[in-house]
Amino acid sequence: MSTGTLITVAPTGAEVAKADVPALPVTLDELVATAKECEAVGAAVIHVHVRGADAKPTLDPGLLRDTVTALREQTGLIVQLSTGGAVTDPESDRLRVLEAEPEMGSLTMGTVNFGDDVFMNRPAFIVELHQRMRDAGVVPEYEIFDLGQLTSLARLLDRHGLPYGGHVHVDFVMGVPGGMPGTTEALVACASAVRDLPAGTTFAATGIGRTTLPVLLASLSAGGHLRVGMEDTVTYAKGQPVESNAQLVARAAGFARLAQRPPLSPDQARELLGVPA
Ligand code: KMH
Ligand code: ZN
């Protein structure tokens, strides 16, 4: 079990509308300000989706590159770009995300129903992303929406080798309508299946919507790490909207300290994840 807790903030995502949630960071200035606040209260990694001038999700290569540069210059956080994008993004655009040279990228391990939509991740696309990330020196975070995707990851690593950096880190995204539930039982099933992955594999978990707290508590108690943010929940408590991403990070950091596994600094997180300093 790790002695500290890796906290990732996912501040924006591709699904929440700025019109519905004014506190959502969508401009580069808002994103950098959010990143600084979250780093100050315990985040080590930022999982980034960017928005265009219309506040809609985009994979514009120039904006992605500017975003990586700004976050690297103005924070110490590990910058992880989403290669998942929005459900409508074509594979070619999702592959091009790597050209922005992030330290990390997300890599979803299978197709999953996603509310009324389908989040497509063909096997051949997964292999291509895995290989291109290794060639580009980008450390993956394997996103797991259902238990079987861990079996797919074991097969991928067996057939195509370890990722850049040699360390395997997975993130359980729980409670998506169409994916696995955000329950302690599902978390335990996933944590148990991690034993079929290479020795030293680490895991984090996030629960969508009202599953945020149960998943956070289950992950901490199972020796896992945490992801929180407005990509995953915009409600702090029943009837109480999230005020800021830092509010969610601060709560997660408080639980981590109570569990005697305080938040890792970005440099400690780089060491854990095999991200070059
Ligand atoms: N927006 C979802 C369709 C990722 O960032 O890699 C995909 C997602 C996963 O959020
Ligand atoms: Zn995402």
From TrEMBL:
<keyword id="KW-0862">Zinc</keyword>
<dbReference type="InterPro" id="IPR013785">
    <property type="entry name" value="Aldolase_TIM"/>
</dbReference>
<keyword id="KW-0479">Metal-binding</keyword>
<dbReference type="Pfam" id="PF05853">
    <property type="entry name" value="BKACE"/>
</dbReference>
<keyword id="KW-0808">Transferase</keyword>
<dbReference type="InterPro" id="IPR008567">
    <property type="entry name" value="BKACE"/>
</dbReference>
<protein>
    <submittedName>
        <fullName>3-keto-5-aminohexanoate cleavage protein</fullName>
    </submittedName>
</protein>
